[in-house]
Design goal:
By secondary structure, the protein is mainly α. The protein is built from 5 helices and no strands.
């Protein structure tokens, strides 16, 4: 931000030495150091606040995009009402429907003829 060359810094030190004097120069440098430290602290606080606002803005923008994308996906692929009954496994729906339809009929082994499978009274 401030570009101070070594020759310029030497000139400032010489002027300060002449104006302030060698006796009060360390005290003046401490005061200047404190003010520079406070200025850096304020700048860092401002920068972190600004970064936080930018981050929040980006998060809100991403949330809007995700919500719009989710709505688009839900419109293109509506939820199958069978998913609630089948625990979300819609691919198993045809097999589950067959199982419900066949529930009234007893299962017979493949190699047993129907006459032998019936219980004798």
């Amino acid at each position: 931000m401030f570009d101070i060359a070594s020759s310029e810094l030497l000139l400032v030190v010489l002027v300060a030495l002449l104006v302030i004097g060698p006796k009060d120069l360390p005290k003046a440098l401490r005061v200047v150091g404190k003010w520079v430290g406070k200025a850096r602290g304020v700048a860092a606080h401002f920068r972190s606040g600004f970064d936080e606002m930018v981050r929040q803005s980006e998060l809100e923008e991403l949330e809007k995009k995700w919500k719009a994308e989710n709505e688009r996906i839900m419109r293109e692929h509506p939820a199958d009402p069978r998913a609630d009954v089948l625990g979300g496994d819609v691919a198993a729906a045809p097999a589950a429907e067959r199982a419900v339809a066949d529930a009234g009929q007893p299962e017979l082994p493949m190699d047993t003829p129907p006459a032998e499978a019936a219980p004798k009274a």
